[in-house]
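Hi support team,

I submitted a single chain yesterday and got back a structure, but I'm not sure I'm reading the token output correctly. Could someone confirm the output below corresponds to the sequence I sent? I've pasted both exactly as they appear in my results page.

Thanks,
R.
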Amino acid sequence: MEVQNEIMFARNGGEVMERRTQRRIVRKSRKFRKNTFVLLTMALILCLGTLAMGGEEDVQTKTYYECVQVQKGDSIWEIAEEYKMDGANTEQMVDEIMAVNGMKNTNIRAGESIIVPVTKAA
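Hi R., thanks for writing in. Yes, this is the structure output for that exact sequence:
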């Protein structure tokens, strides 16, 4: 009877160990598939982002200079805002106007003429 109990215990214990092993294998398999999915998804996003950014065409631009008469109440910032290219930074345009005119500060007076660089898409 004792031998029979030991055999039953070994069988049940063996089955329990086998089930645990199978569960571990299933968990590892699921984790592997999940990690693979995440990795492939990230790679796809990276590739699509690279293609989208590389798909932009270089826009040809042409710069010419316009002489602007300063009116009463005008500021260099307002003039820069008016003449800057779409999407350009106003502060950079102010810096360009100051550089072209050899200005040390942003003070302008009514009646003065300043040269404004105007950039247009060609």
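A quick pointer for reading it: Residues 2-54 form the longest helix (53 residues). Let us know if anything else looks off.

Best,
Support desk
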